[in-house]
Write a structure and sequence with these properties.
This protein has helices spanning about 5-45, 50-70, 80-90, 90-125, 140-170, and strands at about 130, 135-140. With about 170 residues, the chain is mainly alpha-helical. A two-stranded antiparallel ribbon has the order 1-2. InterPro entries: DctQ.
């Protein structure tokens, strides 16, 4: 795990950890909701309205809350056979390849955040809802804000890793 020191790095890491904990709590609450829905369906023939919609949006929200923390701690899946070989044999070239990959990840993450943010603003302005009117509806914007924010945090994590890789290239 590459660390970028200083106050900014600690604050970013703290925000990523808080987002990760929030996602973990969300998972636990979602499990309770699903269990209550199953019991309600089978024991009382009365399901909880909106559970499928809540689960559908929750999965995406949970992923984007946890992804920056996952990357920051080096637990994101990636194929690094070539990078590992280069790091052993030619550390500066390996660090340069890592730098390029981290910058590419930051770029893609920023593109996701930039693409989703206007949709979140539009959903807030229009009061967009998911579900069936009169049965169950929930606002869409919180999930879009989470996706945009999570993607921005992921971009920050990639940039922090890119700084660490750049330091190795320069060494």
């Amino acid at each position: 795990m590459a660390q970028t020191g200083g106050l900014a790095g600690r604050i970013a890491g703290g925000v990523m950890s808080i987002a990760n904990v929030a996602a973990t709590v969300w998972i636990l609450l979602l499990m309770v909701l699903i269990l209550a829905d199953v019991i309600g369906r089978n024991a009382f023939l009365s399901p909880i309205a909106g559970v499928p919609e809540m689960v559908k949006f929750s999965i995406v929200g949970i992923v984007f809350l946890q992804i920056a923390h996952t990357h920051r701690h080096g637990q994101m899946i990636r194929s690094d056979a070539l990078l590992g070989m280069l790091m052993l044999r030619r550390p500066r070239i390996g660090a340069l390849l890592d730098l390029v990959m981290q910058l590419a990840g930051a770029g893609v993450s920023l593109m996701i955040a930039r693409a989703v943010w206007p949709k979140a603003v539009r959903a807030i302005d229009r009061g967009e809802m998911e579900g069936i009117a009169g049965h169950f509806q929930m606002p869409v914007w919180p999930f879009l804000v989470i996706v945009a924010g999570g993607a921005a945090l992921l971009a920050l994590s990639f940039l922090m890793s890119a700084i660490s890789a750049a330091r190795k290239v320069a060494a």
